[in-house]
C-alpha cells in the first residue's frame, strides 16, 4: 500500500513537472530591446560608416556576422543577430573580453544587454528589437593569448 502511494505521488510529480516544461516551451521568449528609439536618435559616431567590415591583419580571433547576412540589405525587426567567433590554433575566447558597442555620440555599451548570450562560439540574439534606420555596431573580442579581434557592421532595419 505504501509503495503504491509513493508511486502515485511520484507520478503526480512527474506530470506536474511535465506540464511546467510544456508551458515554458509553448510561450515564446520575449524580444530583447537591443537598441532603443532614444539611442537610435543620437548622432552617429564620427567615421562609423568608414570602419565597416574593417579588420586588421592579425592572428587574433575573427568575428563573423552570420545573420542578418552582410549583403541582406534592409531587414525587419525583430531580427536574429547571430555572430560567430573563429580562433587560431588552440586559442580560446575570453568571454569577459567580448564587447558590443553601438557607435553613437556618445558610444553606447550594449554588452550588458547581451552578456548572458555570449558563448565561446559566438553571440546569438534571437528576436532583437531594433528601430528602423542604419545602426553601426562594433564587436571586440580577445583570445587567451591576448590577441584582439573586432568587426564593425551596419544593421539596416526597414521601416
The quaternary organization reads as single chain
- Label the overall shape: globular
What's the architecture of the largest domain in CATH terms? Sandwich
Total of helices? 3
| Mean pLDDT over all positions | 80
CATH topology term of the largest domain: Immunoglobulin-like
Ranges where pLDDT stays below 50 over 5 or more residues in a row are 1-27
Secondary structure: helix percent: 10-25%
The structural class is alpha+beta
Biggest β-sheet description: 5 strands, mixed
Query: What is the CATH H-level superfamily of the largest domain?
Result: Immunoglobulins
Order of helices and strands: HEHEEEEHEEEE
* Extended strand count: 9
Number of spatially distinct domains: 2
Radius of gyration: 21 Å
State the end-to-end CA separation. 67 Å
Strand content: 25-35%
CATH class of the largest domain: Mainly Beta
Can you describe this structure?
The protein is an alpha+beta fold. It folds into two domains: 1-30; 31-157, Immunoglobulin-like, CATH 2.60.40. It is built from three helices and nine strands. The protein has helices at 2-26, 37-40, 111-114; strands at residues 32-33, 62-67, 79-86, 99-102, 108-109, 118-119, 122-129, 133-142, 148-157. Strands 1, 2, 3, 6 and 7 form a five-stranded mixed β-sheet that branches. Strand 8 (133-142) and strand 9 (148-157) form a beta hairpin. The protein is globular and about 45 Å long. The protein starts with a helix and ends with a strand.
